[in-house]
Protein 1
Amino acid sequence: MNLRGKSFLTLLDYTPEQIRELLDLAAELKAQKKAGRPHRLHEGKHVALLFEKDSTRTRCAFEVAAADLGMHSTYLGPSGSQMGKKESIADTARVLGRMYHGIEYRGFDQSIVEDLARYSGVPVWNGLTNQFHPTQILADFLTIRERFGSLEGKKLVYLGDARYNMGNSLMVGCAKMGMRFVACAPEAYFPDKALIEACRAVAAGTGATLEFITDPMEAVKGAHVLYTDVWVSMGEPEQVWKERIEALSPYRVTQALMDQAGEQCRFMHCLPAFHDLNTAIGRDIYRKFGIDCMEVTDQVFESGRSIVFDQAENRLHTIKAVMAATL
Ligand code: CP
Ligand code: NVA
């Protein structure tokens, strides 16, 4: 595999073979880490981690992965740098490209990571934009492979706001890897038509299927994975909570949906999740709307069929693989 110098902006830019090889490398690096074998493949290099939005998993995964590979990382948060306020993305990219071997970016429009890649001259890794969250999909697919042995033919049903980064990226990933992808949502929450067409073209070559279904009880039948995400994403205005709760409550992942899917089915979520009242936002929503969970019930989240923390751990191993392969 020669991915050296290649940015990781969306899975659309990667072939199924390249994705498979990144997953194989992640599994290998995970085994090495578990065995306590050092893998300082990029000793002495430096990476910049730009976060215009908050993060627990992605930031920690990049920082720990960089350290495990022998690298040093610099975190630049939503405030404290010149980026976006006094200095354009293009200028920031050209500065960082002179000091760092690679750059991670989390923030708003996909065009920002594209510009960073265009102007910096070093590999840029997308740590989440409004449109895509590709490092999350690698972690999810490693987790599915560990659980089910392979990706091909596995049925993944995404319930909720399928127009945003997670719905989009899962659709792309499933199309690439020959999976059966179902977006289950009200029609207004289905992915963008142009992206669906691009994914259909990919699916034609991989044997993947893409379906768009409004009835959850119908959609989940025979699923290997029920996947959901928050109903309101980072950067969206608070006013959208009301319409989201009204539109998406029928798509909450409940025990009844898990039962309808079947014994084989596992629950997945990129996290963070609203499954109880142990968060400030969760309590605020409870006061305003009287619901004690949102996209998933606490029963499903805490059940033995929930593999969300395996996913979270796999962020580390897959992000490490992306950096190891592209630097
Ligand atoms: N899943 C995910 O990207 O989590 P963070 O927002 O904590 O990075
Ligand atoms: N859709 C969510 C994903 C968080 C990992 C968001 O963008 O906030």
Protein 2
Amino acid sequence: MQRKENGVQRVLIDASTLDKRITELAAQVDSWYLDSTPILVGVLNGAAVFMTELMQAMAIPVQVDFMAVSSYGSSTESSGVVQILKDLSTSIEGQDILVVEDIVDSGLTLQYLLDVLARRNPRSIRVVAMLRKVKPGAIAVPVDLVGFEIPDEFVIGFGLDYAGQFRNLPYIGILSPEAIMAKPGR
Ligand code: IMP
């Protein structure tokens, strides 16, 4: 039978390590907003799992909204072209915004998002990213909090996909070269 683990070369960050780190991130984020109710802006689809876990681990009241931006399609390389596929449902003017990202790779997506959001005059914008790739040539986009710095390899699971699959793995894994070769339509 086809299993969701097929295509994982190895586990990079296991479920309990993720869980522990998210608890730490949540405590740090809580300390930023002792006197306000931030709007958490999750970046779909990849950040859905991280967003869910993070907000449940937080102690302060929050509001939640989502944006969807184009990512890589079904490739493993950034196209450099970012497009808003779904916008926020509310105004963020005068609000404290916490952008919740799954992974910062080249930094292009986040840089674009931060530009778009800053033009809407929020009171503050901060960013928490579950993963950041250590990558020569990446844009030096500011990220206030990073869960894990990871090597420059294509990862899947915990919300992250390859060709639309693997988001429901409960850990972060490295995609196997065979899975890249086996991509539908390749
Ligand atoms: P960036 O614009 O290159 O920083 O890429 C950001 C987006 O690309 C992320 O929000 C992900 O959706 C996607 N992405 C980048 N690297 C990976 C990866 O290793 N696995 C899965 N998705 C990735």
Protein 3
Amino acid sequence: MARKKIIAGNWKMNMTPSQAVALVNELKPLVATEEADVVFCVPAIDIIPAMEAAKGSNIVIGAENMYFEEKGAYTGEIAPEMLTDAGVKYVIIGHSERREYFGESDEDVNKKVLKAFEHGITPIICCGETLAQREQGVTMDFVRMQIKIAFQNVTADQAKTAVIAYEPIWAIGTGKTATTEQAQEVCAGIRACIAEIYDEATAEAIRIQYGGSVNPATAPELFAQPDIDGGLVGGASLKADFGKIVNWK
Ligand code: 13P
């Protein structure tokens, strides 16, 4: 069965609650499509107003992060149940910015992935190499390690529903999109890694996005690749361009 594309925006640390409502209202008619799942991952404080504004549309609201404990003395963190109670279905886990600026390790990512599944939230699990790693020729080794740790103790049935976002760090926010060949090569390698950990059926089911300076010009070729099932979009998800990316065909 063909995998349905999933195109997600990652708003990062942008948009106040009132700006979030305005942006959802602006983009609603532009991102209407039956062909792809459309997710807006927004700052925690924007989740509820964005969800209200998205009612009646195909937009699904997701979160950008979540903690791996149930609740308690973790000042500033967001519990899984806070997300499910608000109706959140997707959460980005292990974005490179969280790894770099907030010290998230592969082990943290794994704990968050397990916790998300426990609560019925689909994790969008991020991986990707630095420019130095690409130049050293260790891209696939590094990404495979990230994937293998992220999926520790995740069952095949859970893994089938997961989303992986391959985001080369050097392509994020730089305007440098990976070439279609580079993106397809790593996404195929990730799928092969999932087949090794689980089996072919799991590898065929899992959805793998590309992220890093995706724009309306690069999206069509990227999304036409056999192992690229959509995109995780930063900057371009904050403007009308996102409508063009979602309707890439
Ligand atoms: P840009 O699309 O702004 O490069 O961001 C990519 C990204 O990090 C999405 O998670």
